[in-house]
Amino acid sequence: MEATIVSNRSHHYPVLLKEIISIISPQYGGTFIDCTFGQGGYTREILKSPNTKVIAIDRDIESKKIADQIKKDFQNRFVFKNIKFSQIKNMKLKNENIKGVLFDLGYSLNQMKDNKKGLSFSSEGQLNMKLGLNDFSAREVINKLTSDDLQKIFKYFGEEKEAKKIANKIIKERTKYEINTQNLVNIITSVKKRSNSKIHTSTKVFQAIRMFVNKEISELINGLINATQILKKDGVLAVVTFHSLEDKIVKYFFRSLSENKSISRYQPKIVQTEPILSMIERKPITPDKQELLENISSRSAKLRFVIKKKNFYNFNTDIFEKFKFLIEIENISNKL
Ligand SMILES: C[S@@+](CC[C@H](N)C(=O)[O-])C[C@H]1O[C@@H](n2cnc3c(N)ncnc32)[C@H](O)[C@@H]1O
Prior knowledge:
- By secondary structure, this protein is of the alpha/beta class.
- The chain has two domains: about 15-110 and about 215-315, Rossmann fold; about 135-215, Putative methyltransferase TM0872, insert domain (DNA polymerase, domain 1), CATH 1.10.150.170.
- The chain is about 40% helix and about 10% strand.
- It has helices at about 15-25, 40-45, 65-75, 110-115, 140-145, 145-160, 165-175, 180-190, 205-215, 215-230, 245-260, 290-295, 320, 325-330; strands at about 30-35, 50-55, 80, 100-105, 235-240, 275-280, 300-310.
- It binds S-adenosylmethionine.
- S-adenosylmethionine (SAM) binds near residues 40, 58, 59, 60 and 85.
């Protein structure tokens, strides 16, 4: 479980790039929304096709530097917006022929290497983990929330088996000093000293805190709903996920909107009879041998996609109800 595109090479490696391009077919033109612009790997490839336009989104203002370089070469075909992808439906898109909406979830190698962001176990200094446009940081989460709340975050967002012990140790230690990134790594390591897992002992807890700080569950759900609304008929919605929780949400959303729903007394809230999406591949696409050789960190990537069948804007979904328990954990942040 590794929610990142961290590469074993020193340069940026856009995950599943050729698969994404073959699915969205930019050679036929149209407007594409790259919801996770990052270092522009997907955007640059799309812009190679002459009749395309890209609207790029990233919550991290740092990615504007890369966007500014691209803008120099593609004045009329490229726009960058520093917003969260949960907000894409607020953009003025009336006259755009949206042919594709892309999500490559997680964070980039550049963000991981940025010591101030505190995403890496070796970061020095205060806890942070904000990707951009956040309301609070990991520093407040770890130093303010109760043991019960921390446990829930570690258990449900990180699937961490030692959640209770780690949370209790944090509470004990923080009476003596304010916990920073290295203190947190030490606390987790001391609790999990007998772990013989292949992943770093702190991976799961770090993932859980990052998801909580960046409200990644509601971001993803709202992003999927908005993307489905703004896509034109025959447009493609493609999502690359890096861990099982993300994939579960995407899989449920795609399946539930691509199956015929009968009006059932057991599902009274879903009255849609016509499926809005079409799912061609039910199994996710994963990196091929060559990509795994070049970028071992792509091993947890899964690409799923759907095609919009109708020009509907409004549709019903029970996705918030289905993942209510995760949203409730996210809402623990109201206490901060
Ligand atoms: C894995 S990187 C994307 C890399 C990109 N595909 C490329 O080839 O350069 C994920 C990016 O999504 C951004 N991001 C994550 N969550 C976001 C959200 N809710 N709204 C907007 N951007 C987000 C991160 O800041 C990061 O830059």
